[in-house]
Automatic annotation (TrEMBL):
The keyword Amino-acid biosynthesis does not apply. Its main location: membrane. Keywords: Cell membrane, Membrane, Transmembrane, Transmembrane helix. PANTHER family: SURFEIT LOCUS PROTEIN, SURFEIT LOCUS PROTEIN 1. It holds the Pfam family SURF1. It is found in: Cell membrane; Membrane. Belongs to the SURF1 family. It comes from Streptomyces adustus. This is SURF1-like protein. One of its GO terms (cellular component) is plasma membrane. PROSITE patterns: SURF1. It comes from the Bacteria. InterPro entries: Surf1/Shy1 (IPR002994), Surf1/Surf4 (IPR045214).
């Protein structure tokens, strides 16, 4: 009755079905891990953004690597902006996907150590090889607030650290690289300034980090596992249909053979 399952065609169909089941289960597990990672990341970001602001010296120091738990923590610092050693970060986009620069200004604390402050985005205002006109920060002693960020690397950001750039232009914000340039005790990481608030003629502040779409990964996980469960069901439906078609064909042949020949 099911001898057709030993045919070449059906052996291939069965092997493909058998291979698809663990593959789809594995894809579902991968999506589950993605869901868990994105959920954990969203929780870390939420916790960091809602945590009470603390002085930046509590979380970082020269040579410190900002951890995932410290990332996006709101910190404060009091000091003065050193615009004479200000640089811009190339090929950065704003919320409208316009290409420009991020403004990175050293912020000298009372003890002489330096905090790197990303003051926000400005348009290129001409060719990218020219140093742009940068709005001045507040003069004198100032208290700034911002989100603590880890050093940028090519591995983490995908941005290639191009050498031989025009003067006072960089590709990545990296405190170790800036410490070699500034020659001071540069605190690890940097901050994205959120206060004082941006006003007319000042760099556009960088928006809050968005949440990753973890529920989408959860939906994909369920989808792949439903597909895995559906493979054997679909295989059995095809087998039953093939058996029925063969039985009907055999019955038709038998009926035709049993009919008496007409004269």
């Amino acid at each position: 009755m099911y001898r057709f399952l030993l045919s070449r065609q059906w052996v291939i169909v069965t092997l493909v079905a058998v291979a698809l089941i663990p593959t789809m289960i594995e894809l579902g597990i991968w999506q589950m891990h993605r869901y868990e990672m994105r959920t954990a990341r969203n929780q870390l970001v939420s916790d960091a953004l809602t945590a009470r602001p603390v002085p930046v010296e509590r979380l970082t120091s020269p040579g410190h690597t900002v951890t995932s738990a410290e990332r996006y923590r709101t910190v404060t610092a009091t000091g003065t902006f050193d615009t004479s050693r200000e640089v811009v970060v190339r090929r950065r986009v704003n919320s409208d996907d316009e290409v420009g620069f991020h403004v990175l200004t050293p912020f000298v604390l009372a003890d002489g150590r330096v905090l790197l402050v990303n003051r926000g985005w400005i348009p290129a205002n001409g060719v990218q090889t020219a140093f742009p006109k940068i709005p001045a920060p507040p003069a004198g002693q100032t208290t700034v607030t911002g989100r603590l960020m880890p050093d940028e690397t090519t591995a983490a950001s995908g941005i290639k650290d191009i050498k031989g750039l025009p003067d006072r232009q960089i590709m990545l914000i990296n405190s170790a690289e800036q410490a070699r340039r500034l020659g001071n005790g540069v605190l690890g990481g940097y901050i994205q300034q959120t206060a004082p608030a941006a006003k007319g003629g000042t760099p556009q502040q960088i928006s809050d980090p968005g949440k990753e779409d973890a529920p989408l990964n959860y939906a994909y996980m369920i989808q792949w596992w439903l597909f895995a469960a559906g493979v054997p069901v679909g295989w059995w439906v095809l087998v039953r249909r093939e058996r029925r078609d063969r039985a009907e064909a055999a019955a038709a042949e038998t009926s035709a053979a049993a009919e008496p020949a007409t004269v």
